[in-house]
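Q: Hi! Curious about what 4-hydroxythreonine-4-phosphate dehydrogenase looks like structurally. Here's the sequence.
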Amino acid sequence: MLALTMGEPAGIGAEIAAKAWLALRDGGPAFFLIDDADRIGGVPVERIASAGEAAAVFPRALPVLHRPLPFPAVPGQPSVATAGAVLAAIEEAVALAKAGEIGGMVTNPIQKSVLTAAGFPHPGHTEFLGELAGTGVPPVMMLASSELRVVPVTVHEPLARAIARLTPELIVEHARITHAALVRDFGIAAPRLAVAGLNPHAGEAGTLGHEDQAIVAPAVRMLRDLGIDATGPYPPDTLFTAHARPTYDAAICLYHDQALIPIKTLDMAGGVNVTLGLSIVRTSPDHGTALDIAGKGVASPDSLIAALRLASQLADNRRKRA
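A: Let's find out. The predicted structure is below.
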């Protein structure tokens, strides 16, 4: 059983949750929604009092742990007043996962600007979940699809700052967490990691920048000394081609867009955000709140469905290893 959080109430979370239930009710992974049950439309809804009731309800209705909002959400118009409910849903799902009442959690997209205005101190879900369910290592973002898995070493920060912050140790830390997650959660016995270069042509022997020789290559050597099958640095413009992708299990990328552009180009609908390094399983759709189409009935549930399916698979793998 999985818990799905409400996400931004003014966004598409409730709509895609209902559509995901329609797609999965006849044999897909079962889930329940933590949300205001009164705002879920288009499908049968049944309030539940605990996670344990959800499995019996799921075939006939979308199970909802009813958590009323302070006032009705208006599609496309986020409000700081709902920030507390959004964060409480995440905290409740984490608590249920840590208690073993659910196999994992899936988070609907949040509106970071609204949470920040309400005093939320974290850049996003990943860092908040690290605080709630950390394991002593930094939480790491992975984007995964059927064709590609990518991990950005630096995430939501200006590119100049991201490059200035790169060190061999930072790359190694992210790669080690990725390697461990590929073994434990994805069931890959001997993961292969490809490390992207920073500069065009991976620096071309120093003629196009020194970072690949001074920062990235030493990180690859350190990883190999640790017994991890890591190779690189590879020129970023060829690392994600159809010929290259089958040669590795995950690509370690050095900044946000280097990782997210290829996976969103390849599979925007099927991409899933996975948080590595947590004590629990957490996935999320690889898209935002889509305020511009909220309330119009046109939002696609495909990425949420993929996130639910992957969370179920990861939870099963964890149980088997345990």
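A: A fun detail: Residues 302-321 form the longest helix (20 residues).
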